[in-house]
Amino acid sequence: MRYCDSIFGHLLKPLSRRCFQSIVDRHKGDAYDKSFDSWNHLVALIFAQLSGIDGLRGLVVAWNAHAHHHYHLGVGQLHRTTLSDANQRRPAEIFAETFAMLSRQADRHLRREGAAILRLLDATPIPLDVLCDCSSFNGRTRGLKLHVVYDPVADHPRDVAITPSTVNDVTVGRELPIEARATYVFDKGYCDYAWWTRIHQAKARFVTRPKTNARYRLVRRRELKTRTGDGFTIIDDADVSLATQGKSKLAIPLRRIRLQRQDRTILTLITNDRRRSAVTIAALYKARWQIELLFRWIKQHLKLRKFLGRSQNAIRLQILAAMIAFLLLRIAARLNRLGLPAIHFMHLVSACLFVRKPIQRLDKPPEAKPSKPKPQHNPGQLEFCYA
């Protein structure tokens, strides 16, 4: 009988064991847990995300019940105390670099040739009010922040960072590498004139909203050839410069676009893009809503509300495992050309993790074996009948 890997085995194939082991060796991730190495740890946490398990005991019972699949996954039996100790001690940098490695691989599989390079930046809080006493409080949320750089064209997160909730969003933005010819879209929380200048000098573009106390001087008004977009109307388009009496300087050409949405609210956008039309730039900022939908999907369908440990290291590992699981789902859906909605694909994977069948037939029933054709006997041939 021809061997067929399980659905879980198919999902893990993009993770290169050799590259992963080099990351582990660089951070000495297996120095203290030789009986439960980093690969076992990663696969167990990904299994918890995909199966919907949010407790240590439930994870151990469900994992060990499928012991006949462990050999082909390269893993072994799971113990609750061993997993709990590994969550506290194993460096989170191992999972972070694994996500970065997988993100580069996903970029090759999911990108679309000829499409504009668009990057959406935002952060979402991870509340830890009761779980972790040492979590930071920023006035609204006590816990951590998940910072994401999202590619809406390829539909996958490119970079992630986990910080205390007191860290400003723009602090993480300054550390990101800037891609030439890319357009960065972010909200007013990323207001840093020096960083905007760096984006402009790197031959990239940005679209954002100004702070309420920012003042801009009108240079000249632009002619509007098209005013109506998808759900908004352009009111004004003009070249401006920063007008301030302090030490703040922004010596780059700026453009201010004011638009009115269907609910009558007026938005003001600031950009250094002088080539695109006002309607196109407004549509780029409207696309920023896709990263909010990403946060909503991750929090609803992956395990980011209940955690397998109380330490911050355990929480960081689980968040990174959730992002790795999301990337594996996206890569599998694209490589196998599945037209299923993401939520349907997630539900089918959760129900069929250890079913041995191709991912292409995940939403189809098993093939019935055709009945054997009856032999055609010659009526003139002698037959022996055994009682």
- Find the structural class using helix and strand composition: alpha+beta
- N-to-C CA distance: 33 Å
Low-confidence stretches: none
Number of strands: 10
Instruction: Estimate what percentage of residues fall within beta strands.
Output: 15-25%
H/E element sequence: HHHHHHHEEEEHEHEEEEEHHHH
Helix content: 25-40%
Which outline best applies?
Answer: globular
Radius of gyration: 27 Å
- Kindly report the average pLDDT value: 88
Q: Profile the largest sheet.
A: 10 strands, mixed
Q: Count of DSSP helices?
A: 13
Task: Give a verbal description of the structure.
It is a single chain. The chain is an alpha+beta fold. Among the domains are: 7-92 and 312-361, no CATH class; 205-275, no CATH class. The chain has 13 helices and 10 strands. Strands 1, 2, 3, 4, 5, 6, 7, 8, 9 and 10 form a 10-stranded mixed β-sheet that branches. Helix 2 packs antiparallel against helix 7 (92-110) and helix 3 packs across helix 12. The two termini are 33 Å apart.
